[in-house]
Amino acid sequence: MNAAIEIVSVTRRFGATVAVAGLTLEVARGEIFGLVGPDGAGKTTLMRLICGALAVDSGNLRVDGVDAVADAPRVQAMIGYMPQRFSLYPDLSVMENLRFYSDIFGVTRDMFETRSKSLLDEFALTPFHARLADELSGGMKQKLALACTLIHSPTTILLDEPTAGVDPVSRREFWRILYGINHTGTTIFVSTPYMDEAERAVHVAFMSRGSILSCGTPKELKEQLQGDIVEIRCAKRADAWRLLRTEPLVRSIEVFGDTLHALVATAAEAMPQIAQRLQSAQIGDVRIREIPPSLEDAFVAKLTA
Amino acid sequence: MATTVRVESLTRRFGDFVAVDRVSFEIQSGEIWGFLGPNGSGKSTTIRMLCGVLAPTSGSAEVLGYDVARDPESIKLRIGYMSQGSSLWNDLTVEEHLRFYAGLFGIYGSAQSAAVNEWISRVGLTEHRRQLAGSLPGGFRKRLAFACTLLHRPKMLFLDEPTSGVDPLSRREFWELIVELADEGATVMVTTHYLDEAEHCNQLAFIYGGRVIARGSPEALKHAPEAGITVEIVSPDNIALLDTLDDLAYVRSASLYGSSLHVTLERGDDIATLQSVIEARGIHLPALTPITPSLEDVFAGIVTGSSASGSRPA
Questions:
Q1: The domain containing residue A256 runs over which residues?
Q2: What is the pTM of this model?
Q3: Which of B31, B36, B39 to mutate to test the interface with A (most CBs of A within 10 A)?
Q4: For residue B56, which of A34, A39, A68, B185 sits 20 to 30 Å off, Cα-Cα?
Q5: What ipTM was assigned to the predicted interfaces of this complex?
């Protein structure tokens, strides 16, 4: 039994809406698993089902081999869940917030002493232990929320868009902490709207309309893209963009600074044709090359297929 | 090319705090100009001064030829400003919002209907026309707010994190529209925390501690001296290695990407030094060579480089 999370044909409805539709997914123990999907894809519902905050309508869901439906309290003791709006108590100090969450999870006093000390150290929050949560910066609040999520030493943590609205430097620091936690064996299941962030996960699943569209390592997902990406540089970038938007052999086109990225069926065939089209429109200085697709390219192609 | 925005030594204080500190730059007409920086670095304060809603403490700025301090009302009529906060009324429909904003800008009658129809369709809200704003999902609220800023066809657009909380597919559609608008002659100043998105901009400026610390096209910034030199390391124990790197003065920043480690160094000469340090730990790696850094590497490298050199406290 190696799976940290095992989801088989799980469905959850809200009235007529099917939020999670016969979804099957496996997360290996000790890995970092990224979940990406549009708003309303069902990501949050899925996380709430895993942590037992919501019951499944049908299907099987196991966490570390324990049935999340039949044995919800045991699963909750093993899982740390950090929702999008994690509730810190603004009028409690950093330490008091940690103590509150440790009491909820029935952490013993001895255990709390060692655990809170090591978490505060690891997250560089020790100097702020007496500060009210309300007076912390955004990045520090985020770290405190994570510390509260970890206070009962869960084997798996679920993080719902933990870095939304956080600047790139703070995001890097947050991920550094996540890698540290993961290094000591904790499984991390994290949803994110940032594609560059999804690249940091070992496995990534694309979710849409309650189902998993595809799942694999970031490398595998990029290889699954049907078609190639070509980068176009030329003299009149705006003219080229206008022209190629309506060109049948170009499936989609995007502007990146002074270059264009086009999705085509095969680069080898499309490149000379694109060059010709541009030259016959008096657009000079054309340079085209094939470039590796981004995770976003792969995701958007799946969504619009 | 005409200059749409001209900023010189622009400064804004709040009490003792200098939110924007002698910032200077120009934005050329038709550019998509990205403004990047950590939370609290002065991005929104700069934008609010350029929109004429916040008076500068000193320095000057001109937008579309009007001075922000002397003639803020002329600016307000001619620009589109999408702020981070939502300014939508939950109990008005999509169409009612657009009609209301059209009225504010003096667009009435058949011109109003034409403008409302055009923007509902261009931001992709046709199916939600009669829906209350309060019942729209986050991404759609952003689309509506965007449409409201575009109705009067402003020549200058200020977009403050327009895509925060917007999913990847909608984000592409947003950018497609931004490119179209620039193509139709608008100049766009945009902030974002998504650095993959910043790659769409023609020009970028990094602001940190109220000062602009680097500028250029995405391409130029990746090769600028301020960005340092980035190498990629794939080793069996990246986490342990990361701790070692922290103690090295010439390492500006280091970050894990799945199984590889991106390390930004001060100078090219540091590569050999780093290699021998790693070697001394008994980790044998193929020769390290510089890679083209991601914009995130550049951003982290510049911000850390800037705070290490003591130019400003964080």
A1: 225-304
A2: 0.86
A3: B39
A4: B185
A5: 0.79
